Amino acid sequence: MAGGAMKVVVLTGPESAGKSTLCAALSRRFAAPVVPEYVREYMDGLGRDTCLADITPIAQRQWQHEQAARAPRPPLLLLDTHLLSNHQWSMALFGQSPAWITGRLTRQRYDAVFLLDPEGLPWQADGLRCQPDVAQRRAFHAALAQWLTTHRQPLVHVAGDWQQRYRQIEAALIQLLAAPGRPAPSTR
């Protein structure tokens, strides 16, 4: 890997878009640590559906995990989602989101945000997912894209089947790591 500043990238998108699987594969390819999606750990021990009061502790812990993973300054840090997902799920489920989440998101630097398309991979139930209808996942994806565009984040759209998604992100990461100080190219 080329020397230089730490690169922090996010994989985000709707349910069943391949975020966790892609993060695991990219972690092996680039020997990079992954910050997993904390909400799964939180919900596994909860024994009930989430409520608005859960958003703050979930988002705070996600943020703490991200900051702890940034501390050793690895050459590449992969985030299997980040606070934007907490914000968007809060908006989708409860029509509101704690204001501090957006503030933190806009102040934190990311080198690339890979937004995974809702189509191209089948939806898979796992006990936590709640958007089996592709129209719901499209709406979630559109809301993420709108937020990322509005807040001028280094957005990279990713689509296709699993292999196509992997190759697209892998190529962007190779380019990102070879050019210290430059964010990944934005795509539409």
UniProtKB/TrEMBL annotation:
<protein>
    <submittedName>
        <fullName>AAA family ATPase</fullName>
    </submittedName>
</protein>
<dbReference type="Pfam" id="PF13521">
    <property type="entry name" value="AAA_28"/>
</dbReference>
<dbReference type="InterPro" id="IPR052735">
    <property type="entry name" value="NAD_biosynth-regulator"/>
</dbReference>
<feature type="domain" description="NadR/Ttd14 AAA">
    <location>
        <begin position="9"/>
        <end position="165"/>
    </location>
</feature>
<dbReference type="InterPro" id="IPR027417">
    <property type="entry name" value="P-loop_NTPase"/>
</dbReference>
<dbReference type="InterPro" id="IPR038727">
    <property type="entry name" value="NadR/Ttd14_AAA_dom"/>
</dbReference>
